[in-house]
């Protein structure tokens, strides 16, 4: 048996299970997966949505599944220099890189070419495995 998840439930809804997905999978509108407890699920959602940490999905059977962001290999740049920070954001954004922007810190999916570009700008790049929650796109609707 497979649960079909077709709509968003209010985020404050309690969940019956959790599915942990990497960023790439959270961008898909159609996806087959398993919850963390092993239940098969099929997602069929409106196109253009990115599933964010904490979103709750449901279907006609009202079973609710909370989205969890999976830990992924990330490149991390930290600087208190506002000009360096802005330059790094500019160059990564110009390449349409999904960025998680935090105070004085940028995170993106590890890419050694991008790492070298940032080192060339005078920044230090470190690596870690963490959940990845990039910025929402400026032109995407978020109706839930």
From TrEMBL:
Transmembrane region(s): none
Main location: cytoplasm
A Pfam family: UreE_C
GO cellular component: cytoplasm
Keyword Chaperone: yes
Coiled coil regions in record: none
Localisation: Cytoplasm
Keyword Metal-binding attached: no
Residues of the UreE urease accessory N-terminal domain: 2-65
Superkingdom of origin organism: Bacteria
Keywords: Chaperone, Cytoplasm, Nickel
GO biological process: protein folding; protein-containing complex assembly; urea metabolic process
GO MF annotation terms: nickel cation binding; unfolded protein binding
InterPro entries the UniProt entry points to: UreE, UreE_C_dom, UreE_N, UreE_N_sf
Membership in a protein family: Belongs to the UreE family.
Cited function: Involved in urease metallocenter assembly. Binds nickel. Probably functions as a nickel donor during metallocenter assembly.
Name of this chain's protein: Urease accessory protein UreE
Gene that produces this protein: ureE
């Amino acid at each position: 048996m497979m649960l079909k998840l077709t709509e968003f439930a209010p985020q404050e809804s309690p969940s019956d299970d959790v599915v942990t997905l990497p960023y790439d999978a959270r961008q898909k509108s159609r996806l087959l997966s398993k919850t963390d407890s092993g239940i098969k699920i099929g997602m069929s959602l409106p196109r253009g949505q990115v599933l964010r940490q904490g979103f709750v999905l449901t279907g006609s059977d009202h079973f609710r599944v909370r989205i969890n962001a999976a830990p992924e290999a990330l490149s991390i740049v930290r600087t208190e220099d506002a000009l360096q920070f802005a330059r790094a954001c500019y160059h990564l954004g110009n390449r349409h890189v999904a960025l998680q922007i935090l105070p004085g810190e940028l995170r993106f999916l590890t890419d050694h070419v991008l790492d070298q570009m940032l080192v060339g700008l005078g920044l230090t790049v470190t690596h870690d495995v963490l959940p990845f929650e990039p910025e929402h796109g400026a032109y995407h609707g978020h109706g839930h």
